[in-house]
Write a structure and sequence with these properties.
Layout (H helix, E strand, L loop, with lengths): L2 H14 L1 H39 L3 E6 L3 E2 L2 E2 L8 E2 H10 L3 E16 L2 E10 L3 H5 L3 E4 L4 H5 L4 E4 L1 H7 L9 E4 L2 E9 L14 E5 H8 L9 E2 L1 E6 L5 H15 L10 E5 H44 L1 H9 L4 H38 L7 H27 L3 H6 L2
Parallel strand pairs: 6-11, 8-10
Antiparallel strand pairs: 1-13, 1-14, 2-3, 4-12, 5-6, 5-9, 5-13, 7-10, 8-11, 9-10
């Protein structure tokens, strides 16, 4: 018997017991659908995390003022301005691993444009901020050096602010008022989306640091050079851990902290936080896929069970085939093809069902899903392998039947 004839015979046998065949495939269908859906959800989660990592910028470390001890009480980050513009200059000048060190001052304010207003984050910074954050402009230009040093009355709007203050467009060149200070919009930032904490990064206004201190947010009376945080960009390919240690050592030296004293600042590696979340989402995806794979094994056991029943029911047919010249390998091929056909058709149906399930989950829960071609190929291939593995024993058992004894079976 040729393999083509074996395939035809196997399909005829499956059609003869269509309902049983469909019920047998259910385990494979559910297993593959679960794998495809879970991997799609996991891949979607990873894609979202990667977008968030990209939106943060690469190789970033943020140093925040605060974390001091006063009267035996440890103060939280930002409770006191312990960093300064001079610290940023020293970090960029004295540490070779540091590409940029940008002092920033952060606050919130009501912004007014015409008859509309919007409460948002106001960030005083330097022109290098956009380079460090890898943040493009969708329109306009960055601060000029003279605007940055001379407290220029200019501002860059995040997309969210621009939409809420100028719903009909025309933000560029318009005047806004922040705490009664008139500022000219010289640029609109490209969309960044949410950060790792779910906060809208586009809900912000950037102004020169000198403008922030002298005109908008004010400066510390104790130290006019004080800032709330320093954003540090490490050079590509450099050791982040080594850079963080050098930053810590230099700041402790500049702040004259003794070995027994705690840091009066707080450091955070944004890329490390993002990578940790990415690893967590990848682990979750693997766990979900592993749980779903159990359904495939259960489906495989169901196939083996049904194929053993089929061998018992068709004992006389097998004996007749062997008696008229069929070889044991022909019988084995026929039953093995039946098992693999059941599993493969179930796998294909499972892929379709899994894709629909992933789409439903994305629509219902507003959760991103991403069906990768390699996941589909692996799922169908695995279902085929399940058919071969669990179908081999029934096929082997059928091929070893004695023709005479098989023909005597009632």
């Amino acid at each position: 018997m040729s393999y083509l004839e074996a395939i035809r015979s196997a399909l005829d046998a499956l059609r003869a017991n269509l309902l049983r065949s469909v019920l047998t495939m259910l385990g494979i269908i559910i297993g593959v659908a679960s794998v495809v859906a879970m991997v799609a959800v996991g891949a979607g989660a990873r894609a979202r995390v990667m977008d968030q990592i990209k939106s943060l910028g690469s190789n970033l470390v943020i140093v925040i003022s605060g974390s001091v001890t006063s009267g035996g009480v440890r103060m939280g980050s930002g409770s006191r301005l312990t960093l300064s513009e001079d610290d940023a200059v020293a970090l960029e000048r004295e540490i070779a691993l540091v590409q940029l060190a940008i002092p920033t001052q952060r606050g919130t304010a009501q912004v007014v444009a015409g008859g509309l207003n919007w409460s948002t984050v106001v960030l005083g910074t330097t022109p290098s901020f956009l380079e460090a954050r890898e943040w493009e402009l969708s329109a306009g230009r960055n601060f000029l050096p003279e605007e940055a040093t001379g407290a220029g009355k200019v501002a860059l709007l995040g997309e969210t602010v621009a939409i809420n203050l100028f719903p009909d467009g025309g933000a560029l060149g318009s005047e806004i008022r922040v705490k009664n200070v008139p500022l000219t919009v010289i640029g609109v930032l490209a969309r960044k989306g949410q950060n790792m904490q779910g906060q809208d990064q586009d809900d912000t206004i950037l102004i020169p640091l000198t403008t922030s201190k002298r005109r908008v947010l004010g400066s510390s009376q104790a130290n006019a050079r004080a800032v709330g945080a320093i954003l540090i960009k490490i050079r590509d390919g450099e050791d982040m851990d080594l850079a963080q240690q050098q930053i810590k050592d230099l700041l402790r030296q500049r702040h004259r902290l003794q070995a027994t004293q705690d840091d009066d600042f707080w450091m955070r590696n944004l890329s490390e936080v993002a990578a940790t979340r990415d690893a967590s989402s990848r682990t979750l995806a693997f766990l979900l896929a592993a749980v779903a794979t159990v359904s495939l094994l259960v489906g495989g056991i169901g196939i083996m069970n049904i194929m053993l029943v089929s061998v018992t029911e068709r004992t006389r047919e097998i004996g007749l085939r062997l008696a008229v010249g069929a070889r044991p390998r022909d019988i084995r091929a026929q039953f093995l093809i039946e098992a693999t056909t059941l599993a493969t058709i179930g796998g294909i149906a499972g892929v379709v069902l899994g894709g629909l399930g992933a789409h439903f989950a994305a629509t219902l829960a507003d959760w991103p899903t991403l069906i990768r071609p390699e996941a589909v190929i692996v799922a169908v291939s695995f279902s085929f392998a399940v058919g071969v593995f669990f179908g081999f024993y029934p096929a082997q058992r059928a091929s070893q039947l004695d023709p005479i004894e098989a023909l005597r079976t009632e």
